[in-house]
Amino acid sequence: MRLPIIIFISFLSLVTAQQPKDTTLLHYLRSASANALENGNDSLFKQLNTEYYQLARIHKDTLCIVRSFFHEAMYRPYPANMIFADSIINLTKNFYKIDFPSYGYYLKGQLFEDNDALVPALDAYKTALDLATKKKDSLGILDALGGIGSIKLTLGRFKEAQESFHRSRNYIIQKKGSSAALRSNYNLARAFLHAGELDSARYYVDLGLSHIDLDKEYAVKSKAYHKFSAFYPSLVGLDAYVKFYQKTAMDEVKDSLTKFLPIYENEPIYLGWSHFVLGEIALLEGKRKQALDHFLTVDRLFGPEDWRFSKLKETYAGLIELKKSDNAAQLAYMEKYIRYDSIRNSKMLRIANEVTTNYDLPHVADLKKRIAESNNDLTRKKRRHFYIVSSILVVAFVISLVFHFRYRKTKKRLELLLNEEPVPAPIKVASQPKKSHALDTEHLTHILNRLNDFEKSDLFLDPTYNMQDLCQYIGRNANWTSKVISDYKNPEGFRAYLKDLRISYAIADLKRNTPKLTIAGMASSYGFGSANTFSKSFKERTQVTLSSFLAALPEKASA
User: Fold this and answer.
1) Is 368:132 a contact under the CB 8 Å cutoff?
2) Phi-psi sector, 267: left (phi>0), alpha (psi -120 to 50), beta
3) Backbone angles phi, psi at 302, to 5 degrees
4) End-to-end Cα, the chain, rounded Å
5) Nearest to 64 by CA among 128, 132, 15
6) What range does the record give for the signal peptide (predicted)?
7) Strand ranges (DSSP E) for 261-415?
8) Among 321, 349, 342, which residue's Cα sits nearest to residue 333?
9) Hey, what's the torsion of the CAs at 128, 134, 135, 137, to 10 degrees?
10) Buried b (16+ CB within 10 A) or exposed e, 264-287
11) Nearest one of 278, 309, 272 to 291, comparing CA atoms
12) Which residues fall within 8 angstroms of residue 114, CB to CB, at 6 or more apart?
């Protein structure tokens, strides 16, 4: 259980606290106390942590006070350390960090679990899970579900453990180098290994190792691997255990475990597993002396009271076999074997019953209550759903009718557009031309005649053609020309008039000649600055989309 704690210390060192005016000494004490904690220097750690706490209080730095309480909770004996876990919870009830106060409950769960109080541990983990879910704290959810899964694993409920670890994995974005991804894969590999599902364990071990970018030799030599790769030795251990039970690459298993034994010195569970596996391999190779040394190491690490170390029974069986020539030693290990088996069975049975009574059954009762409440609202919800669905169907029917009539109208317009005789003049003209003020018949006739000549030319296909160019062509000023265009050609003025000429020309030209250009090319040929402008103008002029018109041209041609 110590490994997640060490990782959390590194995590706390990264988050930004409420900054006091002078934090140099505060940060130094934090770093020094964390190093003393990691190196196991109890006396130095307690001295530094006390100074750290006092200075944090002076600066009113809540996060630093929480760190100091956390350190104390780790090294005070049970149940005295629970006071500090409760203090963290009370201190961070309204804290601005999303991982509080859920982590206080997670810490409390770990302390309970380390002392075999598994039912209170499950309650604490569940509270941590609820708070983390409410705050959308993915790492808090991972921690809490990991704690619940770990207890289920201890009780031999492998499927339930796998379910918890799978749930936690769903909250984590899998990224290379992510510690959260490593932890989720590590937990799943551990659950499948204990369940004997070696292929699945192999999959998650490989997935976890793929997230690590770390030189193995450097990790072994320096013992100072990166905090995000803190699960690397654990995954290497799991990798070796899986290969051992799959009976593959035994030499590689021995090399990996032997190299990492120094790193496992502060992790008794992995140290014990490693020596057990190395002892089993030595037995298979007929190296009884090596096997005995490894099993004796396991015996020194654990006693019959350490019922949660599942390989102790097999270790005692191996020692009984290897000590055939020493009757007294054999009897001693037989007694340990029987005592361990008795303690483990009684503990497992008692705790399993407690968990079922105090955790599983209330959980099922709560689920049943929620289902009953849901059923009470079912009729009302069904009625509401009926109205919603009916409304949606009515709206959908109306929309379909609208689209149907629009389609028929568009189709009719398209047919008319394709079958009518091409005319170069624009369709949109003033319905009732007005007499132009201050313009005699001679000038009016001249302008109209020149406009008719202009419509028969292709001058309007020039994208840069403007009113000044047209006035020069007609030989009259802009005021008179504009007035005549508005009264006799297009009430919207020169620009609309020019656009209609271009669209009329484009329709006639496209009907005569199969288009070979892109829409952008067509736009440029017909005097438009862009394909978008051409398409928009075509739709405004004809009420038919350009794409529909172009698609219909080959059909008309083939017909």
Assistant:
1) no
2) beta
3) -135, 150
4) 81
5) 15
6) none
7) none
8) 321
9) 60
10) beebebbbbbbbbbbbbbbbeeee
11) 278
12) 1, 78
Q: What are phi and psi of 526, to 5 degrees?
A: -100, 15
DSSP annotation string for 103-119: HHHHHHHHHHHHTT-HH
Place of tokens 């002892």: 279
Whether the per-residue pLDDT at 431 is higher than 80: the answer is no
Handedness of CA 38, 39, 45, 51 (dihedral sign): negative
Mean pLDDT of 332-336: 92
Cβ neighbours, 10 Å, residue 436? 18
Lookup: tokens for 346: 């009684």
Q: What angle (nearest 5°) sits at the alpha carbon of residue 53, between those of residues 49 and 59?
A: 140
Question: Is the pTM here over 0.70, yes or no?
Answer: no
Give the pLDDT score at 447: 86
User: How far apart (Å, rounded) are the C-alpha atoms in residues 315 and 295?
Assistant: 6
For each of the domains in the chain, give its residue range(s) and CATH number, in order of start. Answer: 421-558 (1.10.10.60)
Average pLDDT over residues 442-465: 86
Closest CA to 143 of 171, 114, 112: 171
d(C-alpha 427, C-alpha 499), whole Å: 11
**Residue 484 CB partners (closer than 8 Å, separation 6+):** 436, 439, 444, 447, 448, 451
Reported as a pLDDT band with limits 50, 70 and 90, residue 362 is: low
| Amino acid (1-letter code) at residue 443 | H
Q: Could you give the CA distance from residue 79 to residue 409 in angstroms, rounded to a whole number?
A: 83
Please say whether the beta carbons of 341 and 376 come within 8 A: no
The whole-angstrom separation of Cα 306 and Cα 327 is: 25
Cβ–Cβ under 8 Å, residues 288 and 279: no
**Category of 20 on φ-ψ map: left (φ > 0), alpha (ψ -120 to 50) or beta:** beta
Query: Which residue spans within 145-220 are E strands per DSSP?
Result: none
